[in-house]
From TrEMBL:
Residues 1-32 form the signal peptide. Residues 111-392 form the Trichome birefringence-like C-terminal domain. It comes from the Eukaryota. It comes from Vigna mungo (Black gram). It holds the Pfam family PMR5N. It is a single-pass membrane protein. Residues 58-110 form the Trichome birefringence-like N-terminal domain. GO terms for cellular component: Golgi apparatus; membrane. This is Trichome birefringence-like N-terminal domain-containing protein. The keyword Ribosomal protein does not apply. One of its GO terms (molecular function) is O-acetyltransferase activity. It is found in: Membrane.
Length: 396
């Protein structure tokens, strides 16, 4: 791969650091010029209520309520061969189980019961691929568990890799893959620096073309700060910035992805989905009516029940990222199906791994205010509902 589109690594090195030397002088002015109209658009969106998506005439799939249902969960973590320790809350000591016994009920309808064998028969000989960050991996593993519990005797094959991991149901010829691409656009290492290229799709996007069903997601990595930030510089318009407005960066990256999908995916053979922004629960004021008296933690730790409300009012601050995702998808030539799980997931403050994650040591578990995972989700758990909605959108 040519470095920065120049003739030699040395020339690339000189050009890159010459540009970086000037960043402190022009970064603010360049960013303002670039983002002025975008900021105006976002400010307008802030005055609007979140969009309510109803993908069927009489059934608003993504608006409804959580109800208790003792027929859930759909599988047991001990019977699934693929759950990462990060999501395996029961294995790592979560003592309560009521969070597993809730079913999403949309307004005016019920979701069809997920049938793993029917999924395999419908998808026989085909490939499903999830592309995105660890929330996409959360959903990928959930779907495999939901299917596997229906056909536990079938022959399977798991190949874990980076960036591509693949699970095959060999008797049905069905492949379900996860491709790690947290930004969907390219990130390269040049001269030891990580360059996030907002105008280039991930370099291995060719692998995505062959899937029969594609499900994309992005979001959380665009917000990371400090040591968690995934880039050293952002490339946009042949210029390099140490940082920029995060919503603007997300929008530019999303538009690059959307243009790539419109130009490269044959929609007559490939169905394209986009998973909405998965909310985090790091601020208990959002579900305690702003009251701080009596609160013992600073996040989702200790939460054992969902917010019981009809899903028409968002419980907290609606994610600005979701407005960007919604806007870009609506403007595609052939829009992806938006699996709008943001609001229904916001009610599930109880469904995160919290401190019950294999990634934590005893010292970290003793400090939940700092260590609780309130971004990912336990398996079994909420991503199973995402996949019930995915199943409904695919086959009904």
């Amino acid at each position: 791969m040519a470095l920065l589109h120049f003739q030699s690594p040395f020339a690339a090195f000189q050009h890159l650091f010459a540009l970086l030397f000037l960043l402190s002088l022009h970064h603010h002015k360049a960013s303002c010029a670039l983002l002025l109209s975008l900021r105006h658009h976002h400010n307008t969106l802030r005055q609007q209520r979140p969009m309510i998506h109803a993908n069927q005439t009489n059934c608003a799939l993504f608006v409804g309520t959580w109800i208790q249902d003792d027929s859930y969960p759909l599988y047991q973590s001990s019977n699934c061969p693929i759950i990462d320790p990060q999501f395996n809350c029961k294995m790592f000591g979560r003592p309560d189980s009521e969070y597993l016994r809730y079913r999403w009920r949309p307004l005016n309808c019920d979701l069809p019961r997920f049938n793993g064998e029917e999924f395999l028969l419908q998808m026989k000989g085909k490939t499903v691929m999830f592309v995105g960050d660890s929330l996409g991996r959360n959903q990928w593993q959930s779907l495999i568990c939901m299917i596997y519990t229906a056909v536990p005797q079938t022959q399977t094959q798991l190949v874990r890799g980076e960036p591509l991991s693949t699970f095959r149901f060999l008797d049905y010829g069905v492949t379900i893959s996860f491709y790690r691409a947290p930004y969907l656009v390219e990130i390269d290492v040049v001269q030891g620096k990580r360059i996030l290229r907002l105008e280039e799709v991930d370099g291995n996007g060719d692998l995505w073309r062959n899937a029969d069903v594609l499900s994309f997601n992005t979001g959380h990595w665009w917000e990371h700060q400090g040591s968690l930030q995934g880039w050293d510089y952002i490339e946009l318009g042949s210029k390099y910035y140490p940082d920029m407005d995060r919503l603007a960066a997300l929008e530019r990256g999303m538009r690059t992805w959307a243009n790539w999908v419109d130009s490269n995916i044959d929609r007559s053979r490939t169905k394209v989905f986009f998973l909405g922004i998965s909310p985090s629960h790091t601020n208990p004021n959002e579900w305690n009516s702003g009251l701080t008296a009596g609160l013992t933690t600073k996040n989702c730790y200790g939460e054992t029940a969902p917010i019981m409300s009809t899903g028409t009012t968002y419980p907290g601050v609606y994610p600005e990222q979701m407005r960007v995702v919604d806007m870009v998808i609506r403007e595609m030539s052939n829009p992806a199906y938006l699996l709008d799980i943001t609001m229904l997931s916001a009610f599930r403050k109880d469904a995160h791994p919290s401190i019950y994650s294999g990634d934590l040591n005893p010292q970290q578990r003793a400090k939940p205010d700092y260590s609780a995972d309130c971004s990912h989700w336990c398996l079994p758990g909420l991503p199973d509902t995402w996949n019930e909605l995915f199943y409904t959108a695919l086959f009904y």
